[in-house]
Amino acid sequence: MSRIERIEAELAKQIAIAISDGIKDPRVKGLISVTKVTVDTELSYAKVYVSILGADGEEEKVIQGLDSAQGYIKSKLRKTMRLRAMPELHFVYDDSIAYGIYMNQRLSEIVKKDEDANE
């Protein structure tokens, strides 16, 4: 595992902890999971992919809330990580978990219809 990959993994872990510690912004609601973090080679910019469950169509507002809480999150990161400069965080909505849940439900419905047809 390269240095960049280790930093990305640690950032993902520490950002998730900072989010779960409680951001006061009312736009930040639902179950928020950090799915992936990518940083550039200079460690000046980090793209943080988050999955949001329970926001019911307000994912963009949650992302805006996370962007506005960036100062709080970065201050938490500075306390736990030893980087010369903390990268600028950019939050991106990742719908892969929600899509997986949707596909699982659809497959369950198809299986149930197939079982009902075979009875």
- The overall strand count is 3
Please state the structural category: alpha+beta
Question: Termini distance?
Answer: 52 Å
H-E order: HEEHHEH
Mean pLDDT: 88
Largest sheet: 3 strands, mixed
Radius of gyration: 18 Å
Helix content: 40-55%
Order of strands side by side in the largest beta sheet? 1-2-3
Shape type: elongated
Counting DSSP H or I runs of 4 or more residues, the number of helices is 4
Q: In terms of per-residue confidence, which ranges show pLDDT below 50 for 5 or more consecutive residues?
A: none
Beta content:
15-25%
Notable features of this structure?
119 residues, alpha+beta, 3-stranded mixed β-sheet, 20% strand, elongated
Structure overview:
- With 119 residues, the chain is of the alpha+beta class.
- It contains 4 helices and 3 strands, in the order αββααβα.
- It has helices spanning 3-20, 59-68, 70-80, 96-118; strands at 31-39, 45-53, 88-93.
- Strands 1-2-3 form a 3-stranded mixed sheet, with helices on both faces.
- 19% of the residues are buried.
- The mean pLDDT is 88.
Quick summary:
The chain is an alpha+beta fold. It contains 4 helices and 3 strands, in the order αββααβα.
